[in-house]
Design a protein that fits this description.
By secondary structure, the protein is mostly helical. It is built from six helices and no strands. It has two domains: 81 residues, no CATH class; 33 residues, no CATH class.
């Protein structure tokens, strides 16, 4: 019996699904993208190509982001045209999502967050360090 004839084992890992992203807080977009990436990594057999990753990420969008991507796909389907460039590439999809619904000036936002960051006795130093490192990048 060859290795290819052996049944493939299914992962017993049950990763947490991503939080839904509604676009109301652009600062949460990177967290959404990270959560999707971790889900894809844990369930890689379920996501053999970029189109399945894009479809999965689309299913966790709501409100304005979902409406925008849905209108793009609906137009394509109804007109019989070609799918948008981002549908075939998860990297392009993420880029489009960031451009449309992410922070518009992340450098300025990070600088302002760093200026407002302070440590007090009731806050653990670990929390301060995490917040500092997140904004410093």
């Amino acid at each position: 019996m060859s290795l290819s004839a052996l049944p493939k084992s299914k992962s017993t890992a049950k990763p947490r699904t991503p939080d839904v992203y509604d676009g109301s807080d652009p600062a949460k977009l990177d967290t959404f993208i990270f959560q999707c990436s971790m889900y894809f990594a844990a369930r890689s057999a379920d996501f053999p190509d970029d189109e399945t990753r894009v479809a999965f990420a689309l299913s966790y969008l709501t409100d304005t982001p979902l409406n925008w991507f849905q209108s793009e796909l609906s137009h394509t389907i109804s007109s019989g045209g070609t799918f948008p460039f981002w549908y075939h590439s998860y990297a392009d999809f993420v880029s489009e999502l960031r451009q449309l619904f992410g922070p518009h000036d992340s450098a300025t936002n990070a600088m302002e967050a760093l200026e407002q960051l302070f440590y007090n006795d009731v806050t653990k130093v670990t929390r301060y360090t995490i917040d500092f490192n997140r904004h410093a990048r």
